[in-house]
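In response to reviewer comment 3 from the previous cycle, which asked for concrete evidence that the modeling workflow produces usable outputs, we include below a single protein chain processed end to end. The sequence was submitted unchanged, and the resulting structure tokens are shown without manual editing.
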Amino acid sequence: MDNRALSTVVEKLLSMGLVLLYIGLVTTTLYGGTVPAYQSAVGAELGDRTLAEATARVEQAVPPAARAVSATVRVSLPDTIDGVGYTIQTDGDTLVLDHPDPEIGGRTQPLLPDRVDTLEGEWQSGSSTVVVVSGTRGSVAVTLEAER
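The workflow returned the following structure tokens.
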């Protein structure tokens, strides 16, 4: 009796089994640790960039000293960070990015002229947002709000 044909089938089955085992291990390693860590890092980086861009736009919205100040500047923000909505709100003279993921978020203080008395308001992600600046030469208010 000749069993040579059977050895070829067994060899192919063992080769396919090893390839499937390798693919399974690589997939488990990536989706078990590497990919979620990368997504979290990307979300945190996007949160930092969003807060920095919002701060820069607030700073740029305040025009040079004039008798009367009235300006509205549109601000473009991402609809979501890491697939989830967020808010940017004021806390005294700072901007705070609030996100459900504790790894994403932060605080920053815009560099505003001394004539700016108040910084207030809130932006919700996914809506059109603007910075409204109003007041007189010595007293200016900066407000974050949804575009009307």
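Residues 28 and 74 are 44 Å apart (CA to CA). We consider this sufficient to address the reviewer's concern, and the full set will be provided in the supplementary archive.
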